[in-house]
């Protein structure tokens, strides 16, 4: 990310393509000056912050380009912290490009991806956790991920990290004091107090780390992978869950060759569901590649669903497949139950347990791709299998960057605690605690380098 705060930047902030209106954002010391060049009527008005002005946009030959509403935000009272003008014009790609060209002719520069948010960060309007939450909010497609991002944007998680950073600074200051002043007979804080305090910080970091699993699922969705032998109804179930005919279904075993993915929302949570090629030994080259892909996909699942045909006498082959792929969480979808009236869940569970004794009854679901009501039932079971995602009242980490830094801080504190307990030299303890502190500061962006900036802002779209 380029640091060029002396330049005034502009970009279209609404999505590309045509629309009722488009918004062009201009930020920097010359935002108003630039706007006045293309909307000369502004020069005759008394411009106040947070007020909108209807103006004609004119080119250098005074030809009218569009009629637009310009909103002015004075320096210090805008998203970026700089002087900002937002131009709401008609949403034609010609008009937006023309207005951008005029602004650039007038001395503005085209913004980079995420540069408005980057400026907000550089001007201390946001910390790095909040900047990441802006991106999450734009990306959010379901209720809970939007709520989570909003809570992070209002500083909920930042406050937790700030408290940890301040507590760790306190510990470090006392340890460093013992290095600097040991020879002057200064009252040094008791070693046990330091151990307790450091251990408490570590426990709080651990809690935040544990929230990452929920945070990630809330933000990115729960990845569900349907696997099983050919023809058991995986594609039919995918279509049922997505409520559209995304995957091809036929009675021919080996129909699906590639991974087919789609998303559905249930009770505010996104489920990203993959249908895969039926698993079997095959000499068909294309199918074999499909089978390999199925296995790769299964390994990425948050929740693996083994689909079984209720009419199949022997599930031995299915369980050989399952044992090869199983992760931490699984469901067993016993499909085509419409064709086997009378068979109970308990009987099926018993049969399943003959292959794998530790299968729990709640992970066994009788389904039928022909039964539209099965969709909600299965999604309910998926939700229970994943466990509570109702973490919103607590601070939740949802970015891999935050998690990795928290983990490193945790590990460094672990080493310092060992040194403290061994009564090692304060220099050693301080060295590791400093590493932990640095990691917490990186989370908030109090310490940063190009790599961190690139990682956070490269995901952004233009105009944000
Ligand atoms: N009666 C009944 N038929 C089903 C059900 N689910 C799937 N079928 C039928 O079973 C056949 C195979 O279904 P698919 O969904 O293509 O099976 P698949 O597991 O995706 O098969 P592959 O792609 O070959 O691995 C089709 O003829 C479906 O109509 C069900 O619940 N009940
Ligand atoms: Mg299929």
Primary descriptors:
464 residues, 15 helices, 3 domains, binds guanosine-5'-triphosphate, 6-stranded mixed sheet, alpha/beta, Four Helix Bundle (Hemerythrin (Met), subunit A)
Outline the fold blueprint.
Elements lengths: L8 E4 L6 E9 L3 H8 L12 E8 L5 E10 L10 E8 L1 H13 L3 E2 L4 H8 L5 H12 L3 H11 L2 H26 L9 H30 L1 E7 L5 H9 L17 E7 L2 E7 L9 H15 L3 E7 L6 H10 L4 E6 L9 H11 L8 E3 L7 H13 L13 H22 L4 H19 L5 H8 L7
Parallel strand pairs: 1-6, 7-9, 7-10, 10-11, 11-12
Antiparallel strand pairs: 1-2, 2-5, 3-4, 4-5, 8-9
Bound molecules: guanosine-5'-triphosphate and magnesium ion.
CATH-assigned homologous superfamily of the largest domain: P-loop containing nucleotide triphosphate hydrolases
Compute the CA-based radius of gyration: 29 Å
Q: Identify every distinct bound molecule in the structure, by name, code or SMILES.
A: guanosine-5'-triphosphate, magnesium ion
For the largest beta-sheet, the strand count, sense and barrel status come to: 6 strands, mixed
Structural class: alpha/beta
Q: Strand content of the residues, in percent?
A: 15-25%
Number of spatially distinct domains: 3
Contiguous runs where pLDDT drops below 50 for at least 5 residues: none
Tell me roughly what share of residues is in helical segments: 40-55%
Overall mean confidence score, pLDDT = 92
Q: What are the secondary-structure elements, in order, as H or E?
A: EEHEEEHEHHHHHEHEEHEHEHEHHHH
Give the neighbour order of strands across the main sheet. 3-4-5-2-1-6
CATH architecture tag of the largest domain:
3-Layer(aba) Sandwich
CATH topology of the largest domain: Rossmann fold
Q: Can you tell me the overall shape?
A: flat
* Number of H- or I-type helical stretches: 15
Instruction: Please give the alpha-carbon distance between the first and last residues.
Output: 13 Å
The CATH C-level class name of the largest domain: Alpha Beta
Number of strands: 12
């Amino acid at each position: 990310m380029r640091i060029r705060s002396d330049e005034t930047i502009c970009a279209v902030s609404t999505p590309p393509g045509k629309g009722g209106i488009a918004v062009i954002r201009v930020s920097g010391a010359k935002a108003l000056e630039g706007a006045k060049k293309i909307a000369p009527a502004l020069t005759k008005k008394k411009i106040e912050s947070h007020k909108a002005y209807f103006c004609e946009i004119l080119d250098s030959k005074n030809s009218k380009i569009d009629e637009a509403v310009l909103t002015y935000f004075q320096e210090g009272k805008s998203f970026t912290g700089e002087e900002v003008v937002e131009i709401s014009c008609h949403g034609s790609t010609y008009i937006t490009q023309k207005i951008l060209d005029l602004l650039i002719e007038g001395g503005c520069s085209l913004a980079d991806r995420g540069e408005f948010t980057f400026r907000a960060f550089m001007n201390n309007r946001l910390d790095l956790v909040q900047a990441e939450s802006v991106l999450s909010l734009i990306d959010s497609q379901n209720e809970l991920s939007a709520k989570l991002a909003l809570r992070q944007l209002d500083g909920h998680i930042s406050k937790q990290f700030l408290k940890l950073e301040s507590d760790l600074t306190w510990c470090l200051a006392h340890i460093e004091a013992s290095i600097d002043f040991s020879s002057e007979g200064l009252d040094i804080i008791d070693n046990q107090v330091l151990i307790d305090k450091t251990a408490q910080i570590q426990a709080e970091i651990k809690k935040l780390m544990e929230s990452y699993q929920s945070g990630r699922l809330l933000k990115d969705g729960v990845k569900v992978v349907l696997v099983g032998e050919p023809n058991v109804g995986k594609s039919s179930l995918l279509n049922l869950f997505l409520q559209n005919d995304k995957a091809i279904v036929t009675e021919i075993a080996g129909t699906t060759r590639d991974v087919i993915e789609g998303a559905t929302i249930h009770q505010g949570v996104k489920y990203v569901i993959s249908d895969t090629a039926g698993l079997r030994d095959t000499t068909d080259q294309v199918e074999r590649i499909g089978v390999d892909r199925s296995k790769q996909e299964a390994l990425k699942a948050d929740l693996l669903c083994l689909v079984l045909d209720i009419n199949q006498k022997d599930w031995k082959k299915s369980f050989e497949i399952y044992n090869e792929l199983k992760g931490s969480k699984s469901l067993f979808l016993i499909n085509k139950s419409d064709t086997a009236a009378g068979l109970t869940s308990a009987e099926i569970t018993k049969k399943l347990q003959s292959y794998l004794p530790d299968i729990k009854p709640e992970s066994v679901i009788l389904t039928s791709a022909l039964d539209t009501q099965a969709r909600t039932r299965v999604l309910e079971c998926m939700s229970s299998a994943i466990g509570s995602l109702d973490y919103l009242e607590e601070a939740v980490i949802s970015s891999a960057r935050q998690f990795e830094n928290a983990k490193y801080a945790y590990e460094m504190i672990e080493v310092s605690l060992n040194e403290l307990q061994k009564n090692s030299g304060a220099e050693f303890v301080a060295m590791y605690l400093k590493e932990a502190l640095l990691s917490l500061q990186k989370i908030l962006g109090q310490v940063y380098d190009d790599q961190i900036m690139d990682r956070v802002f490269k995901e952004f779209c233009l105009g944000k």
